[in-house]
């Protein structure tokens, strides 16, 4: 792909110091993510998927190698509001309305009130929650709460969206629906998305690029460029092309377990 990568890791290492001694979470991670990519990270628990996402977001600090976001250090990118972050749990404040939750980062960043309201309306529409701004989180289903959490991450219109297993706790039917919604959202906004998942079908369905990671220390065992078209109905999951990619992901996960 042409142009400079939006996110680039070169020989990235991260070792945590613990009471039981050092734990290497990431080892020699090399990756380029370009503008408009939808990149899924998949691997077993403890393989460093979330840790790598947290490094991009300046929530963890690598102990070796180099990581840039928009050509800056992750910390500079955070200050430049380069990305929105969606956590595993929706993390909405129960005493704030949905609109109030979405406004929170805008309030902290000092956006004028009129612009806050306009942005809230826009992102509620993007995640198909128009008309729910005055509701409180407890009045919404789990799937709707997670959509509100995505709206909050989109509110200040960063070019990069980082999503850490946002649908992991939801049932399969809701998850399928939200997978479709996220693809539509990506098509409408053109954002660069980094997405952590444990689900092979989810990774294959959503991504332009699938990064397969091994158990700790987290290494990349395969990077799969998806040949699937951008327009993806759910039933594409029954196609031979889809099943072939899923098989390669599964093989990559198995190979990762065979290391060391």
Automatic annotation (TrEMBL):
<feature type="domain" description="ABC transporter">
    <location>
        <begin position="9"/>
        <end position="236"/>
    </location>
</feature>
<comment type="similarity">
    <text>Belongs to the ABC transporter superfamily.</text>
</comment>
<keyword id="KW-0067">ATP-binding</keyword>
<dbReference type="Pfam" id="PF00005">
    <property type="entry name" value="ABC_tran"/>
</dbReference>
<dbReference type="InterPro" id="IPR003439">
    <property type="entry name" value="ABC_transporter-like_ATP-bd"/>
</dbReference>
<dbReference type="InterPro" id="IPR027417">
    <property type="entry name" value="P-loop_NTPase"/>
</dbReference>
<dbReference type="InterPro" id="IPR017871">
    <property type="entry name" value="ABC_transporter-like_CS"/>
</dbReference>
<keyword id="KW-0547">Nucleotide-binding</keyword>
<dbReference type="InterPro" id="IPR050166">
    <property type="entry name" value="ABC_transporter_ATP-bind"/>
</dbReference>
<dbReference type="InterPro" id="IPR003593">
    <property type="entry name" value="AAA+_ATPase"/>
</dbReference>
<dbReference type="GO" id="GO:0016887">
    <property type="term" value="F:ATP hydrolysis activity"/>
</dbReference>
<protein>
    <submittedName>
        <fullName>ATP-binding cassette domain-containing protein</fullName>
    </submittedName>
</protein>
<keyword id="KW-0813">Transport</keyword>
<dbReference type="GO" id="GO:0005524">
    <property type="term" value="F:ATP binding"/>
</dbReference>
